Each structure stands twice: as C-alpha cells, then as structure tokens.
Amino acid sequence: MIEWLKDVVDHDFEAAYSYLSLRLDADRAKLAVKALKKAEVTTRRANDILRACGYAALPLSDPGVHKDLLKSGGKKLSPILLVSFANGGDIADGYHRVSLAYSFDPFADVPLRIAHVPELEHAK
User: Fold this and answer.
1) pTM of the model as a whole
2) 3-state DSSP assignment of residue 25
3) N or C: which end of the chain has fewer CB atoms below 10 A?
4) Rg (CA), the chain
5) Among 91, 120, 115, which Cα is nearest to 41's?
6) CATH annotation of 10-116
7) What is d(CA 6, CA 29) in angstroms, rounded to the nearest whole number?
8) How much of the chain exceeds pLDDT 90, in percent?
C-alpha cells in the first residue's frame, strides 16, 4: 500500500511549471501553477485520473514508476498536481505516482490538488 503525504512538496510546483511551460506559454503556465497552489488537497480514483487526462498507466518497469516504487517502501509520496481545462485535464506533476497507485489498485484513492482553469486552452 502506498502512503501519501498530507500535502504537496514545494519542488513539485516547480516540476509542474516546467512541464506546463512546454504545453502553454509562460504566463498561462504561471497562472495554472498559481491555481494549483490555492487548490485544496482532495482525492480521486487512480483510474479516473488517468482516464480524465487521456493517459494509460505506465508499467512498473518504467524508470520513474520504479523509482517511486522504491521510494514508497520507506517514504510517503507527494500528492498529484492536476490541471483541469475547459476540455480535459492534464497531470502537471505525478504521472509516475498515479501510475504506481494504479498498478497496485486501479480504484485506489489518490490525493491530488486540482486546479480548474477553464480560461486556459488545453494544448493536448
């Protein structure tokens, strides 16, 4: 069973910005991260997170998932950061962690912050 931190670690917001700045212009990426920082931690099922974002779960053999698997043996993992656009969502940080959770139990509750940013166009 995966144990989760109560809240997101600070460097995950930086990772989210790094990813989102590849999909959006810098100002929109900053707006999305600002909304993530204001969002409350909630939970959603691993399968629903992946489905809503249009992703398949990565296998345990994926280097990032494997790294989180090893980390989860002794440390709690940080919640996921998800941005919800007008026409879909995207995992801004935590794709490997939600894939790991899915591999143990597709219906497992995964903690996350969801930023609803309808004014941003989804780049997917």
Assistant:
1) 0.91
2) coil
3) N
4) 14
5) 115
6) 3.90.1530
7) 24
8) 81
Residue-wise pLDDT for 81-95, tens only, equals: 999 987 778 999 999
In whole numbers, what is the pLDDT of the chain averaged over residues?
92
Contact between 32 and 13 under an 8 Å Cβ cutoff? The reply is: no
Instruction: Please state the domain extents for the chain.
Output: 10-116
Q: How far apart, in whole angstroms, are the C-alpha atoms of residue 27 and residue 31?
A: 6
3-state secondary structure 27-95: HHHHHHHHHHHHCCEEEEEHHHHHHHHCCCCCCCCCHHHHHHHHHHCCCCECCEEEEEECCEEEEEECH
- Inter-CA distances, 37 with 27, 71, 74, 109, Å: 15, 24, 26, 21
